[in-house]
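Posting for a labmate who doesn't have an account.
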Amino acid sequence: MGLYDGYGVDPNYCSTAAMAKQLGCPVILLVDGKAVSTSLAATVMGFQHFDPTLNLAGVIVNRVTSDAHYQLLKNAIEHYCSLPVLGMSLLATASHYLNATWG
């Protein structure tokens, strides 16, 4: 389920966004960074503008391919959305698992 997905099509009924607003909690948005760059800022901006009353506190980017990729995404989001990027998780690849040490 996404941030604005609830019961039916009303984002103010049983969605994560509605619960955060009712409780007065800030929201940290988790977004998919795989195979994108500056376009991810447009996605984040869409979440911002869909409900301007929602307290978006920051962004975490998932499935990032490298530190350079992360810096590109971070710079775009912080520049265009004025939201802090709080961190990332790297994309796990098949070679990552082949090089793993088990036991």
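Reply:
Got it, the structure tokens are right above this. Strands lie at 27-32, 56-64, 85-90.
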